[in-house]
TrEMBL record:
Domain of life: Bacteria
UniProt biased composition (Basic and acidic residues): 50-65
Disordered as annotated region, ranges: 32-65
Organism of origin: Streptomyces sporangiiformans
Protein known as: DUF4352 domain-containing protein
PROSITE patterns documented for this protein: PROKAR_LIPOPROTEIN
């Protein structure tokens, strides 16, 4: 009896330790949120700093805003501004979604159909990268609780508003430079992968 309680306690501690580690990893890797919005608001002063610090930082800023691909369906427009390989063996795809309609957009079909993803409502959890040359499909990374390493549109995207988003995927082989991004019923968008920092 005592051995049984000890094992339950160890399992609980192990689960807590793993979950804590994953949450910290997601917090460290994740972008989005209010930090990005405050950076966007200060973007007019950023180029002036870049000129003083050197040309490298200035050349990177415009690339972040460069449209790599765009997918439209009805009043919803999804723009991809970055698709970069990271040293950790994953790819981070990011951009914006714009609601040009008159109703709230909740991204209901973007979360995916898998039972494990049901807790990721109003997110890009169902997104995928397709390597057509290698004939492989890469799904959004997720933690042991089924939470995606992606943006959740808490409260949806209101009419006329634009929201930032990101999603992280396992990296395709090094030779793969072009993939197709797909989410929900949006048309696929072809994207060139770049090397991260």
């Amino acid at each position: 009896m005592n051995f049984r309680h000890t094992m339950k306690g160890r399992r609980a501690l192990t689960a807590v330790a793993i979950t804590t580690g994953l949450v910290l990893t997601v917090a460290g890797c994740g972008g989005g949120g209010d930090d990005d919005k405050s950076d966007t608001g200060a973007s007019s002063s950023a180029p002036a700093k870049s000129n003083d610090d050197g040309g490298d930082k200035e050349s990177q800023a415009p690339e972040e805003n460069k449209v790599l691909a765009e997918s439209k369906q009805g009043d919803i427009s999804l723009v991809i501004t970055s698709a970069a390989r990271d040293t950790g063996g994953y790819v981070t795809v990011s951009g914006t979604v714009n609601n040009g309609g008159s109703k709230l957009f909740v991204a209901a079909d973007w979360r995916g159909d898998e039972k494990e993803l049901q807790g990721n409502a109003s997110s890009v959890a169902g997104a995928s990268l397709v390597d057509q040359a290698g004939k492989k499909k890469y799904l959004v990374l997720r933690d042991t609780e089924g939470r995606c390493l992606c943006t959740r549109f808490v409260g949806g995207v209101k009419s006329g508003e634009t929201a930032d988003w990101y999603a992280q995927f396992p990296a395709p082989p090094e030779g793969t430079t072009k993939v197709s991004f797909q989410v929900g019923s949006m048309p696929p968008a072809s994207v060139e992968l770049s090397e991260g920092e």
